[in-house]
Amino acid sequence: EEKKEEKKEEKKEEKTQNKTEEKSDKKDKKDKKPAQEAASSGDNAQLVGQVVIKVGFIRKAWKHEEKEKLYVEEIDVGEAQPRTICSGLREFIPENEMQQKRCLVLCNLKPRKFGSIESNGMVLCASNADHTKVELLVPAEGAAVGERITFSGITNAPEAVLDPKKKIWETVAPGFKTTSTGLAVYNDLPFTTSAGNVIAPTLKNATIS
Questions:
Q1: Which has the closest alpha carbon to 207: 110, 119, 132?
Q2: Beta carbons of 49 and 158 less than 8 angstroms apart
Q3: pLDDT average, residue stretch 40-51
Q4: I want to staple 57 with a disulfide (CB 3.0 to 4.6 A). Which of 37, 49, 67, 76 is the partner?
Q5: 66: burial class by Cβ within 10 Å (0-12, 13-18, 19+)?
Q6: 3-class SS of residue 205
Q7: pLDDT, tens digit, for every residue of 46-82?
Q8: For residues 183 and 205, is the Cβ–Cβ distance under 8 A?
C-alpha cells in the first residue's frame, strides 16, 4: 500500500512539473514575440539605407508623345550623363513649372519602359490624401546636385539596382511623408542634405511617392 501511495505521489509531482514547464515554455515564446517584432521593425527601418535618393536638377521636361499623363524629363543627378525619367505629373504641374527645377530622384529602381521611352528613376513628390494635388519636393538651398539624401541612424548600404522581387521600395515607401510643417521625413527621420532638410512647399501631412 505504501509503495502504491508513493507511486501516486510521484506521478502527481511529474504532472505538476510538466505543467509548470509547459507554462514556462509558453511564456518564453510570448516574451520572444515582441522582441522578434521589434527586430523585424528595426530591420525594415534599415532597409531605407538600400534606397538611393539624390538631389536632382530638371534641365528640361516635355510631354510624352505616347502617354497622355506623363512628362519626360532630362534630369542631372551628378552623373556623367543626365537621366531620362518619365513622371505622371501632367495633370498636376504645368509644363512651364517643370523646367529648370531642383528635385529629388529615386535613382536605383529597375529601369522601366513607358511606351518607347525607358525611364531610369523616379521623381519623388508630395501628394494630398485624395491625390488631387501633387508637388515636387524641394531640397535645401545649397545642396549639391547628385548629393545623396541621408537619414539619421540609418546605415547607407545601397543596392546598385533594387531587386523588384525583394520589394524593398514597396516596404519602405509607406514611411515617406511630410509633417505638419511640410518637412519631408521617413518614419519621423528628416530627409537630410549637407545644406539642410527637404520640404514640400505647400503640402502638409502628405504622402511621398
A1: 132
A2: yes
A3: 76
A4: 76
A5: exposed
A6: coil
A7: 899 999 999 999 999 999 999 999 999 999 999 999 9
A8: no
Residue 142, C-beta contacts closer than 8 angstroms, at least 6 positions apart: 194, 195, 196
> What region, left, alpha or beta, does residue 7 occupy, with left being phi > 0 and alpha being psi -120 to 50 degrees?
alpha
Instruction: Examine the pLDDT at 39 and tell me if it is beyond 70.
Output: no
Q: Nearest Cα to 54, choosing from 107, 108, 120, 98?
A: 107
Burial of 100 (0-12, 13-18, 19+ CB in 10 A): exposed
| Cα–Cα nearest to 200, from 139, 156, 158 | 139
Rounded to 5 degrees, φ, ψ at 101 are: -115, 140
CB within 8 Å of 156: residues ≥ 6 apart: 49, 148, 150
Instruction: Compute the half-sphere exposure of residue 17: CA atoms within 13 Å on the CB side of its CA.
Output: 6
Total residues found in the chain within this entry? 209
CA distance linking residue 130 with residue 206, whole number of Å? 10
From residue 33, give the alpha-carbon distance in Å to each of 19, 45, 63, 118, 177: 21, 18, 51, 45, 29
Per residue in 79-127, pLDDT tens?
Answer: 999 999 999 999 999 999 999 999 999 999 999 999 999 999 999 999 9
Buried b (16+ CB within 10 A) or exposed e, 24-49: eeeeeeeeeeeeeeeeeeeeebebbb
Q: Give me the half-sphere count of Cα atoms (radius 13 Å) on the Cβ side of residue 191.
A: 31
